[in-house]
Amino acid sequence: MLHAQNLSKEYDSNLALNCLNLSVEAGDIYCLLGANGAGKSTTINLFLNFIKPTSGTAIIDQMDVSQEPLKTKERIAYIPENLNLYGELTGLENLEYFVGLSGKKYDDGTLAEYLKEAGLQANVYKQRVKSYSKGMRQKVGIAIALAKKAKALLLDEPTSGLDPKASNEFSELLVKLSNQGVATLMATHDLFRAKETGTDIGIMKAGVLVEELSAEDINHSDLEKLYLAHMN
Amino acid sequence: MLSLNIVTEFRTIFRNYWLASITILLLSLCLYAGNNGYQHVTQRQANISAALTEMEASDRLVAARLDSIDKGLEISLPSWQAPNSPTATGDRSPRVAAFEAGELSLIATGQSDMFNHYVKPTLTGDNFSIAFTELTSPVTLLMGNFDPAFVLVYLLPLVIISFSYNILSREKEQGSLVLIASSPMNLKLWLLQKVMIRFVIVAILLSLCLLLMLSLNGSGLGIDTFRFLLAVWLYAAFWFSLAFLINLRGWSSAKNAIVMLGLWVTLVLAIPSLISQTANAFYPMPSRALLINEMRTLQAELDKEQDKILDNYLRNHPELITRDADESTAYGWWQRYFASKDMVIQEMTPLLNSYDQSLKQQQDWVDRLSFLSPAVLLQNSLNHLSQTSTAHYSAYRTSVLSFADEWRDFFLPMVFQDKPFTKEMLDQLPQFEFDKSNVDSPVLMNSIILLGIIALLMFISFGVKRKSEMQSIMYG
Fold it and tell me: Which of A46, B117, B366, B391 suits B431 as a labelling partner, its CA being 20 to 30 A distant?
């Protein structure tokens, strides 16, 4: 579903991403680990077509993101580190708007179902989002992904700043989506969550994917050692 | 997407009190400025009414005195004030040449605070050219009264800037832009829709406020009202187009605000001032004081050629010219006076023409460069619609000068032929009519120029592709 082929990005002669190759298939949760500036967010931004690659190709559902930006965006949902919705609108209205931007229209009942499926409590649907916690806003983000019927999820440190319970709930939702065949590419610093949630793990350093492994093949402790070894 | 954006935009600006704030602001500004304009127009009309009332009272008195003279009765007036003297009536019973306010005169004070709106051309009065030599370009009049034109030309752009400078940057800074940009839609179109929705909101609110202002102040609603609103809509559309272009640069809200305010200073203050200054530099107007001085000098020189002592004395003391005096001396003096007056006019014509020429060149210069500033274009349109434009006052001056000639031509034959002014002639007195039909309207041309500028801004926004545009918007 998501493929990076020799993907590189250079900013003013600084190589932010160097010849990245990776694949995330339907049902996979691919976790990208790495220090700040390792190239994780750059990778996500290239898939979102927010930036143009210096060379190489980002492919979503067999389409080049640069060539087909709108069609590829129809197939993805994006949740950033801080999902900031419109504070003056309710959760339901935000969902209606952002799903509507994708050309999909649902009645309030269906939208409420998506919010429920994303784990948001029914009594806050019609509360203004400015009163929501970060965890609640991230759930609205998941609801947007559900309602968009996205085939791929791009997540940029989505659990950063969430309390353990909220973080766990978020992971459960990702697994749920994964079971529905959604391909997920998640940039994160959370080694524990990557091991618990991910199916594949990649470690990046200075724009290079230095390690790629299956989450099943490594335990928490070894993952941490491996990560630190690469960072030193 | 449009209906979705409309609903969301309304929900947002209604809930964050923007809609209420901008409504109150626009309403307050329009009503206050409208009231100021109304007071100005009311005062102008009151002055004209008072002058007309005074003229009618004077006419009744003249008619009564002429009636008495016809009946052979004595009137208690010296001969030089007797109404059967054409010189006395030509001087003491002038018509009021009034420039009445138009339906929309309250919207722009324009040149109207610099001149009286009526003059009384007399038989021996000065040439009226002098009274109008202060006509200046509308650009120099941009600063001034807190009238609706001031609100629209100066303050409306600030309201629009505050309403539009951060449409995109705010989304970026609060973090919602990434979610929007990850949606399968054209970000420029999305932004354009947001800008257009806000433009429509401002246009509707402003139109309602202006219509309320006009109706409260007794102005009728006609085709000129529509032209007025159209000019204002286009001006607002220009500023929103500019905001659209600036938003697309992807700068921060602070930078957008500074750039927009810089453009406001440039387009509303600096360029009009520059146009005015260059007009004065390239086509300097002769000093008004110099003109008056030259006129007096010339008059004095010509005076010397007359019978110096007696003539000057009689001119300063016309009450001494009585029917008991030698008639040939008395009327001979007036004849020589009018002859010398004609010579003054002939001698002064080149100087006055140079004044007119400089004024016309200045105005042409302003007209040619007005496309550089939408503020000048709107001010010109508003001045025209309110009939306070330079062109209106020039036309008024021409009408008054023409009427003054007509007035003199009516009385002079009587003066030279020693004929008395009779009661029957009262009804034949020339009447002033101000014909504005030959004043060209710049409103359509200004509107077309503004439309062209808006189209140019849209072309730059959509037509000029920048490298890594999305990157610039998201991270620029």
Answer: B391
The count of structural domains within chain A is: 2
Out of A149, A165, A183, pick the residue that ends a domain: A149
Least confident of A158-162, B246-250, B436-440: A158-162
Minimal CA separation from B169 to chain A, in Å: 14
Q: A112 is in which domain, residue-wise?
A: 84-149
Kindly list the residues from chain B whose CB atom is less than 8 angstroms away from the CB atom of residue A71.
184
Res. B136 pLDDT band, cuts 50 70 90: very low
Q: Which of B178, B180, B465, B475 to mutate to test the interface with A (most CBs of A within 10 A)?
A: B178
Give the residue from chain B lying closest to A71, CA to CA.
Answer: B184
* B305/B238 Cα distance (integer angstroms): 63
pLDDT bucket at B362, cuts 50 / 70 / 90: confident
Phi, psi of A64 (to 5 degrees): -70, 125
Burial of residue B20 (CB within 10 Å: 0-12, 13-18, 19+) is: exposed
Q: Burial, B262: exposed, middle or buried (Cβ in 10 Å; 0-12, 13-18, 19+)?
A: exposed
- Domain identity same for A96 and A124: yes
pLDDT one-digit tens code per residue, B193-217: 999 999 999 999 999 999 999 999 8
Report pLDDT digits (tens) over B99-128. 888 889 999 877 676 677 888 888 877 654
What does the DSSP assignment read for B4-34? HHHHHHHHHHHHTTHHHHHHHHHHHHHHHHH
Structure tokens at A85: 């919705």
Sheet of A14-24, strand order: A14-24, A2-11, A55-60, A63-64
| Residue at a domain's end among A116, A149, A182 | A149
Phi and psi of A23, rounded to 5°?
Answer: -135, 135
Distance CA B84, CA B81 (A): 9
pLDDT exceeds cutoff 60 at B330: no
A15 shares a domain with A128? no
The verdict on A101 and A45 lying in the same domain is no
Q: Is the dihedral of CA B318, B319, B325, B327 positive or negative?
A: positive
Q: How far apart are CA A36 and CA A42, in angstroms?
A: 11
Do residue A222 and residue A156 come from a single domain? yes
Q: Which CATH number belongs to the domain containing residue A178 in this structure?
A: 3.40.50.300
Q: What is the least distance, in Å, from the CA of B4 to any CA of chain A?
A: 7
Instruction: For residue A200, list its beta bridge partners.
Output: A30, A214
**What is the structure's pLDDT at B466?**
65
Q: Is the pLDDT of residue B320 over 50?
A: no
Could you tell me if A131 and A159 lie in one domain? no
